[in-house]
Design goal:
Layout lengths: L8 E4 L5 H11 L5 E4 L4 H9 L4 E4 L12 H8 L4 E4 L2 H10 L2 E4 L3 H14 L6 H11 L1 H16 L1
Parallel strand pairs: 1-2, 3-4, 4-5
Length: 156
Amino acid sequence: MSEDRTLTAAFIRQGSSWPSLKRQAHRRGPFARIRFFDTVGPEEAAARLRGARVSLATLVPRKGYGFTAPTKLYASVAVGTPVVHAGPPAVGAVIEKNRIGVAASYDRPSFVRALRTALDSADGAPDRRLIDWAQENLSVEEVAKRAGDAIEAALR
């Protein structure tokens, strides 16, 4: 990772860990490079994700979310921002297989390596390949078509 000292982490209020993250940031510093925002509407969230070099999406393992993907993961990819994910391996496998970001184990060294890898290859411009992948795999139209095809196949 380049020695870019202008990096700032921004957290938008969501999830059960948000208050704890804020307390830890105050204790450990450097707080000036970490920003916390209250919940925002979808348009502002999309604009913030689109303006980021990478997006961070985490899920604590063994908390009942083994096959859940954070909404932020898909929202990030839909606006062309690669994601760094730490959490359940099933989600990481989707990320790695489709090259939509970097997956890490839910531990600090693995997450730091993944973040460095992602930052080294992200220039901050929306990645058209990610946007196209999201359209082909996550759009309401495509999901509805796959669901309809599955229902038709089951009825045959």
